[in-house]
Batch of 3 targets.
Target 1
Amino acid sequence: MSTPSYFKWISFAMVAIFLSGCGSLTVLDPQGPVAAEQKGLITLSIWFMVFIVLVVFVMLTIMLVKYRDRGNNDNYDPSIEGSHKLELTWTIIPIIIVTILSVPTVITIYNLEEAPVIEGAEVQEEPLEIHATSVNWKWIFSYPDEGIETVNYVNIPVDRPVLFRLTSADSMASFWIPQLGGQKYSMSGMETELFLAADQIGNFEGRNANFTGEGFAEQRFTVNSMTSDSYDDWVEEAQTEFPPLTEEEYAHLMVPGHAAEMTFSSTHLEFVNHVYDATYSLDKRAELGYEALNPHSREGKAFEMPYLTQPIDVDQRYDVELEDE
């Protein structure tokens, strides 16, 4: 006995729902004005496209029913001239669709190139400036005004715009905090700017959204949004209770691998800015004995990806030593 077709479709739908996962869709869970504006644009696009799909399916159904073969084709003449009205219609309608989607998209893109407006704030504060540097496979955050540097986490005050200045020490990465806003690329020898803000206190996950090799999946960081008083307390604690970052320690952060969360009372901007020195990480890796290897080669398989913790062992080397067979 054959399985009814409707049962097959129901089973397929259930499997698709199961495979889609049960986690929350963070892109549509905005925790800041930038993400909220982008959610509005995404929602508008989705519903508009759903409307278009429904119209197409309704018209398809009408065509199939109205013009189906009824066995009486006496009046059917396939050699007819094209309809100018139809040709104009299916030319103008796509133009209208693209225009409706383009106008709000362009407006939103230009709005997001400026510091977001914090609703309810009596005075709009100047954006907090943070330099975000990607390096395989970790994130380094520098607070130039506060003289603080963190690894794999970043603290920001709630209800204050943040200007992230993005660059990379090696591979091109994508800086993305889904609940606070869309992504932008970080590139070696270049700097891009991204305005974000949080209007809720909490912890948000950030990541690299651009595949960069073996350790890409774990290139994540935590964003801690806190009150202004808590942020000021953290700044004071970081400036007084944590050691400064030395160039020797920073050189080890340039070696591909992972790292725990770290805090320093100075920044690498005092001795290097990757915007102007694109080969700095390559030079430091060579000094420490690291050599890029094919992961499928004997040498590549023997290389153990480092996991750095604070304090960083500045005497560590990254040469590959092969055992004789």
Target 2
Amino acid sequence: MFAKGKPRTPLANSQAKFKGQLANNTSQLNLSFPTAAQLLRKNNSQLRQTKLSISRKDNKLRYDGFVEESEMRPKKEFVYVPTPRIQEKSSCEVSAKKDEKVGLPSSPMSRPGRNLINLIGHVDFCLKTHKMYPDINAIWNVYGKLLRIIEGKRGEHTLLLRNEDSGPILQGIYYDFKGVLKTWIPGGYVHLVGHFIGENRLQTFNIAQVSGKDWQQQCMRIENVTTYILMQNNAHK
């Protein structure tokens, strides 16, 4: 009535299962292997440090969970700053600067180290000029009549000078370590070289006696030219 079928053997079942797995593996041959970063994103897992401690009761390791790790950030961040572009100067500007250096200065007195001048005159002229230009950098050559020599301590001598008959008195401070002033007699004419350290005090570097003929030589022209030059220089500042 009904034909008896062959019973399924376990061998047939295993063959069918093997074919199914083979077909499934064949479909995944074209796929690439997952990377570590992909697995980390997929599973969202990371290595964590566990807390372990030894129990005092039974002297065994005890698990206390995971160590909370804070997000580590670098202390300093590297920022790239591009180098500034240097604008090339034109040849005209460079040549103009060279011409300025080569040419003569418009005001030699304004150059550093060029403002030292040498002034010559009698006592009244030097005192008057120093009062009008107290900040001038000058070496003064003062001619006058010696009135008195005041001896101080440690070789300091003060020479009092003025014009032949009348006028203001100049104090020349000079340190005589060689005894030159011992032979000097008041009433003669002298020449002092130095710079002012006050209104009428001259720090003297060099001293010399002059004859009556040298004293009688007129300094009027030199004093007038000096006054004119100082006025012109002060007007252009």
Target 3
Amino acid sequence: MPINRRVLTPVAAAPVVLAVVCFFFWSSIIAPDRLKDTKHVLQVAKTIPLPGDGPESLEFDSQGEGPYVGVTDGRILKWRGEELGWVDFAYMSPHRDNCSRHEVVPSCGRPLGLSFDRKTGDLYICDGYFGIMKVGPEGGLAELVVDEVEGRKVMFANQMDIDEEEDVFYFNDSSDKYHFGEVFYVSISGDRVGRVIRYDMTKKEGKVIMDKLHLPNGLSLSKNGSFVITCEGGTGILHRIWVKGPKTGTSEIFARVPGLPDNIRRTPTGDFWVALHCKDNLFTRLFLSHSWIGKSFMKTLKMETVIHLMNGGKPHGIILKLSGETGEILETLEDSEGTTMKYVSEAYEREDGKLWLGSVYWPAVWVLDTSVFDGK
């Protein structure tokens, strides 16, 4: 039977119409959302360049020295102040010949979340390829702590936090299929294969306390250690997992954020800073609401294109401060034009009133005085 020309004409015209719409409205389609009650202050932060890319996480030792940061080529660097600058502290792998400053080489490792054990001085490292590593107070070559839990390989250790009273730590394994290098494929795939793990350092045993998560990314303990906060980078949802007290073993939604969350850090007063890789836009809402769309993008788009679309064509900086009790957003700080900050991955507030920020890609960290936004 011949196809009716009245049916054929609109079908044939659909791609043309779509192309015209995209041509005229493309900037609106990928433009990041505008947020209410935001403070545009991140662009005034001081920039400290690095001899390496991607200081994804920051940490300070028990003497207050640092920050220590992990970079793309598998090293941990330590900041020694303006005069001495950055010095090598540790590295993930003895195989250093092919390590690249700008591109991740799996054999070199990729250090992500950092946490000091204040009792021992050991620095624990979430490596996006090897698992959980640690290095002693003198630095050097890191050693493996855990790379398998409940019979499954730790593919993508992301961020952790240590409960020193209990001698346990908690960490995210973001995917059972992809390593760090494919992080944005994890985000758009829709696969719920991430998990949160409790590891007993005395017994050397790991236990999954929450699973079926869509790219669990940041993680932090509450100030009293009664619950763990973890965020799904693929949904913008933060979960509260109770690990002590009468609610132990239960979980609930703690907050929803207007973008793709990365690392979480507890403030000195018990609230939480959450870094957003980017704000939501129509593109991110599209693939987050329909996993089949995300999977089709994985087959047709390069990683660089996915990152470009998710950032609205304009990498920017945004962090949120959430109440440690209710999850309410207390502060929204931005560099919406990306003038100073891009791809912000973590915000770490110190008791001296300084806010340090890292980036998953950029070769710098930033420092901002909290008086800029808190009115003190």
